[in-house]
């Protein structure tokens, strides 16, 4: 880790690189997977999934301490693999999955009772649903095609497996209601959650912790290497979209290689030019010691997750939505983001999200702040690394 600084405002000395979330490096762990299935068992009773709208505040009010998150991560470690195995096994009968942290149980939606046994054999709880996941994503794709006409009052839209619906989150304004009427079409898959807040990217022009590039202050996400062993770090695209020299404590740490902040995602890549900086698999939690990133397995909805940032430090909560389309306004609509109940503030952009020791993504933006029970979106790191042509450094 070299001269890695944690509490200081050193945005990612490459030694701290892997997850210097905004002035702090952090390592993440992903909770996923455990597979198993067997011959379908017919004639079993299974509860029908509820489509009752959830209280939107439930997506923002789950706060965990780092110790609580670490404990949960150990218990959730195989969720991702179980989800992936069942998704492939169930095929068109699959209606999505989510983790119920109260029951401590993976819930799996199905539209065919023949697969009840497979779900239970895998240690999950089946829920009968009306629509399969493919149908729900078909409706979301229709909304994505209308994205260019979405007014700023339409905050986001996403597939919600637990309610077997496509949710549009919006402020209650005439322009939003008009868009929603058009987006719904003649189907019954869409439901609306009204909100009084909207998302914003979490970069700002204040100097200090993290790294600076031009007028932006942001956080380092994860260390990465190129095919030839070159050193880089992945961060938020809205921080790097303008290009330029990246500074840490006033000294050159690297130079922007790429930056994307549009419908393809919110991710950027910085080439590390400081010869003394090292790409490590560590993420600093400030008070709890570094975490070593061991992989990039995605965690499911409901799993615990933590992030680190230069502005607000190390915070934890739950994943509350995946593959969301978020409208940041001014024509900036980003697809494929994951929502969490973890708060963040300007300057935290680009910092790492972890589930256990698995890297999940880099902070994109958020709704509200840490004083008002805010929630935060992250760009999944697997997609970012693939599109950038690099590999996340693991230990």
Characterize this entry briefly:
The chain is an alpha+beta fold. Among the domains are: 17-31 and 203-392, Trypsin-like serine proteases (Thrombin, subunit H), CATH 2.40.10.10; 133-199, GMP Synthetase, Chain A, domain 3.
Molecular structure report:
There is one protein chain. The radius of gyration is 20 Å and the shape is globular. It contains seven helices and 23 strands. By secondary structure, it is an alpha+beta fold. A hairpin with a 5-residue loop joins strand 10 (222-225) and strand 11. The strands form four sheets. The chain has an eight-stranded antiparallel β-sheet with strand order 9-8-12-13-14-11-10-23. Residues 1-45, 49-57 and 203-209 have low confidence and may be disordered. Among the domains are: 17-31 and 203-392, Trypsin-like serine proteases (Thrombin, subunit H), CATH 2.40.10; 133-199, GMP Synthetase, Chain A, domain 3 (2-Layer Sandwich).
Mean of pLDDT: 82
The largest beta-sheet arranges its strands as: 9-8-12-13-14-11-10-23
CATH class of the domain at 17-31 and 203-392: Mainly Beta
Tell me the strand percentage band: 25-35%
Query: Which second-level CATH architecture of the domain at 17-31 and 203-392 applies?
Result: Beta Barrel
Give the end-to-end Cα distance, rounded to a whole number of Å: 12 Å
* Main sheet summary: 8 strands, antiparallel
Described by the principal axes of the CA atoms, the overall outline is globular
Radius of gyration: 20 Å
Stretches with pLDDT under 50, minimum 5 residues = 1-45, 49-57, 203-209
Helix fraction by DSSP (H/I, runs of at least 4): 10-25%
Number of helices: 7
CATH superfamily of the domain at 17-31 and 203-392: Trypsin-like serine proteases
């Amino acid at each position: 880790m070299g001269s890695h600084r944690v509490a200081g405002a050193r945005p990612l000395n490459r030694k701290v690189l892997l997850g210097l979330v905004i002035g702090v490096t952090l390592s993440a762990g992903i909770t996923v997977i455990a597979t198993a299935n067997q011959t379908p068992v017919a004639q079993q009773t299974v509860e029908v999934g509820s489509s009752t709208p959830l209280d939107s505040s439930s997506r923002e009010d789950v706060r965990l301490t780092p110790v609580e998150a670490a404990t949960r991560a150990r218990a959730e470690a195989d969720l991702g693999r179980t989800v992936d195995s069942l998704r492939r096994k169930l095929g068109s009968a699959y209606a999505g999955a989510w983790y119920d942290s109260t029951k401590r149980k993976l819930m799996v939606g199905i539209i065919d009772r023949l697969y009840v046994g497979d779900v239970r054999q895998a240690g999950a709880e089946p829920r009968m649903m009306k629509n399969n996941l493919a149908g729900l994503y078909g409706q979301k794709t229709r909304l994505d095609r209308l994205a260019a006409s979405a007014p700023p009052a339409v905050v986001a839209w996403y597939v919600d497996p637990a309610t077997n619906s496509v949710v549009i989150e919006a402020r209650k304004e005439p322009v939003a209601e008009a868009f929603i009427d058009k987006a719904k079409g003649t189907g019954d898959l869409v439901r609306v959650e009204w909100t009084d807040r909207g998302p914003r990217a979490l970069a700002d022009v204040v100097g200090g912790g993290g790294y600076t590039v031009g007028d932006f202050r942001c956080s380092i996400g994860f260390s990465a290497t190129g095919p030839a062993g070159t050193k880089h770090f992945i961060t938020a695209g809205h921080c790097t979209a303008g290009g330029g020299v990246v500074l840490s404590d006033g000294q050159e740490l690297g130079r922007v290689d790429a930056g994307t902040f549009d419908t393809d995602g919110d991710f950027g890549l910085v080439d590390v030019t400081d010869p003394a900086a090292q790409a490590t698999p560590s993420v600093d939690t400030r008070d709890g010691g570094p975490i070593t990133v061991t992989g990039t397995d995605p965690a499911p909805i409901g799993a615990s997750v933590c992030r680190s940032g230069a502005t607000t430090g190390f915070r934890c909560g739950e994943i509350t939505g995946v593959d969301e389309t978020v409208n940041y306004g001014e024509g900036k609509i980003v697809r494929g983001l994951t929502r969490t109940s973890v708060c963040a503030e300007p300057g935290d952009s680009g910092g790492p999200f972890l589930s256990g020791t698995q890297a999940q993504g880099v902070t994109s933006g958020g709704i509200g702040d840490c004083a008002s029970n805010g929630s935060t979106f992250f760009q999944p790191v697997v997609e970012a690394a693939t599109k950038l042509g690099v590999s996340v450094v693991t230990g």
